[in-house]
Amino acid sequence: MDEIDSYDPSNRHDDLRKQLTFGLMYAANIGGVFWPYSSVTSNVLYRLSKREDISQGGKYTDLTFATWMAFNIPGMLLNVIIAWIYLTLVFFGRPNWLKFGGKKDSVAIARNEKNHDNVMKLLQRKYQELGPMTFHEKGVAILFATVVMLWLFRDPRFIKGWAEYVEYVDVGDSTAAMFVVLFLFIIPNSMSFFSGGTSKALMDWKYVQDNLPWGIVLLMGGGFALSDAASVSGLSPWIGDQLNGLQHLDKSVILIVVMMMTAFITEIASNTACANVIIPILLSLSKNLNIHPLYLTLPATVTCSYAFMLPVATPPNAIVFGAGKNMKIMDMVKTGLFLNFSCVIVLFLLNITYGNLLFDYSNYVYANPANISSIHG
Fold this sequence. Notes:
By secondary structure, this protein is mainly alpha-helical. It is 64% helix and 0% strand.
């Protein structure tokens, strides 16, 4: 960042710094919903949905690795584009190529062209410094691609998944992950091993022990314990019962209220804690109101990642706030408020249209319909 700033000696380099850091933060939050394992909140719903047996033995479309991506990729791409346009307008105004009529600032145009050339040279130099890929890097890349393919095609819905060929065993995404991790500890990290030399594995336990963020593991485990405790103790069903008065509202109204409430809560609390508390309650509420279990929980889970205003909301927010020079909380609040609302609105519209086509919300029937209220919409 400092090297890029040095190429812009004008008084606008602070705006450039903020634009890039905010852009990284927004991209990390929005892109974190790309697949179920890219954020802790996504993993919370993914895990709880397996416990609830949403598909009812294959009767309905389940929340799988493939269906999660199919639902979230369109919204993710649209929100990233909106964030890019918004940041550009906020920090630099309307670009010259969108200005019709009037005299264009030739000095600014020349400066921008020079800055562009300098930044491109910097990026090319950094890329050349990386050098060619080593055998170690290629091995890890191949294994990573392998586990992604195993996740995608375990139960892709449009064809028979590989898990169906494994009989008498309950195969999950963790099976594919552990399978690939095993090879990380077996495959050597150098070609010299195959010519009689010695070589370490692609990964050893010492590296895991020193570099694995154990705090995140404990955070996730504590969150799962919290959600399980809320369900087993009867807290989540009790709160869901208290919300039965919502049955007189249209379910789209309930959806936007839930999403706005989640967006507000996750700004002042950890998005992991927010997801672990809210999702079990929404699952109970959905059953009480005879709403598809994903209609409320899926957009609420994604909304937990759409928090752009306060450092405490998400890990990317905290990192950007800590790393940014002269970064103020009010800078984050003023810039992130619009995106909070825009991302929620995009996700809301996506869920009631495309989400309904994907998961067929309207025709879902619970296996045990006792004590279920009807609802409009």
